[in-house]
């Protein structure tokens, strides 16, 4: 091919790539695209859950008074651990289930001892449902971004010692505070994962570029 024509072609392809990157949010590869839209909807859900967890804690404090920070129950900490995104996402999946089990326990205490009283029962029940939905979304993300990584098995609820009413109140505080803080870390991870969608798009475009020349 004539050198000038060749250069012109390269130039056109480059312009095409830049336009594609800037103007088209969606480029072929349906599975990858689906994972990225799953990611965005999971971020929305996580933000909602974070907001609801904060709201619930506020109502819990209104009902039970300020926290004393003395519960010794085995409640998961609020970190997201792992060396890479796939490990972190697996950790989120397992902790999601643990938090859900603990929140179910708090729901049970609230109905047995505190007779489902407002203002706690409404927000508590919303957070309980949201956690279930959140875990399904995280499962989809794991399957979409890391199809080769097996889904971790679901944990069992650790043994609880909380016996008397006050200890159960304390336990509820601990669960809700940790849940709120954990959700913040989950959101950070999901925001980081947005880069993976950018990279996937760039990789596809480079592939297009190479195959055109
Ligand atoms: C419990 O800890 C939180 C922060 O971790 C603090 O804001 C709160 O004042 C503490 N409550 C008591 C009663 O010490
Ligand atoms: C994440 O790190 C673990 C442990 O080093 C490794 O086995 C796994 O393959 C890594 N996953 C990805 C997707 O890089």
Automatic annotation (TrEMBL):
Keyword Coiled coil: no
Subcellular location: Cytoplasm
SUPFAM superfamilies linked to this entry: 4-helical cytokines
GO biological process, one term: ciliary neurotrophic factor-mediated signaling pathway
Cellular component terms (Gene Ontology): cytoplasm
GO MF term set: ciliary neurotrophic factor receptor binding; growth factor activity
Transmembrane segments: none
UniProt key word Lipid metabolism: no
Endpoints of the signal sequence: 1-28
Keywords from the UniProt entry: Cytoplasm, Developmental protein, Differentiation, Growth factor, Neurogenesis, Signal
InterPro entries referenced in this protein's UniProt entry, alphabetically: 4_helix_cytokine-like_core, Ciliary_neurotrophic_fac_CNTF
Top-level division of the source organism's lineage: Eukaryota
Family to which this protein belongs: Belongs to the CNTF family.
PANTHER family in the cross-refs: CILIARY NEUROTROPHIC FACTOR
Function: CNTF is a survival factor for various neuronal cell types. Seems to prevent the degeneration of motor axons after axotomy.
Name the record gives this protein: Ciliary neurotrophic factor
């Amino acid at each position: 091919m004539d050198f000038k024509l060749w250069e012109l072609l390269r130039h056109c392809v480059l312009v095409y790539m830049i336009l594609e990157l800037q103007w088209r949010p969606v480029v072929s590869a349906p599975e990858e695209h689906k994972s990225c839209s799953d990611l965005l909807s999971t971020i929305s859900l996580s933000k909602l859950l974070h907001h609801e967890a904060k709201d619930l804690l506020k109502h819990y404090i209104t009902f039970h008074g300020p926290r004393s920070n003395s519960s010794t129950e085995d409640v998961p900490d609020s970190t997201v651990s792992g060396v890479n995104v796939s490990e972190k996402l697996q950790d989120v999946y397992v902790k999601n289930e643990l938090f859900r089990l603990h929140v179910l326990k708090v729901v049970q205490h609230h109905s047995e001892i505190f007779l489902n009283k407002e203002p706690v029962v409404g927000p508590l029940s919303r957070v309980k449902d949201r956690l279930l939905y959140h875990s399904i979304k995280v499962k989809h993300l794991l399957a979409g971004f890391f199809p080769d990584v097996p889904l971790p098995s679901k944990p069992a609820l650790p043994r609880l010692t909380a016996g008397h009413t006050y200890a159960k109140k304390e336990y509820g505080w601990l669960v809700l505070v940790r849940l709120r803080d954990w959700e913040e870390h989950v959101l950070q991870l999901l925001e980081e994962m947005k880069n993976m969608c950018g990279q996937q798009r760039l990789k596809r475009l480079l592939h297009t570029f190479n195959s055109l020349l």
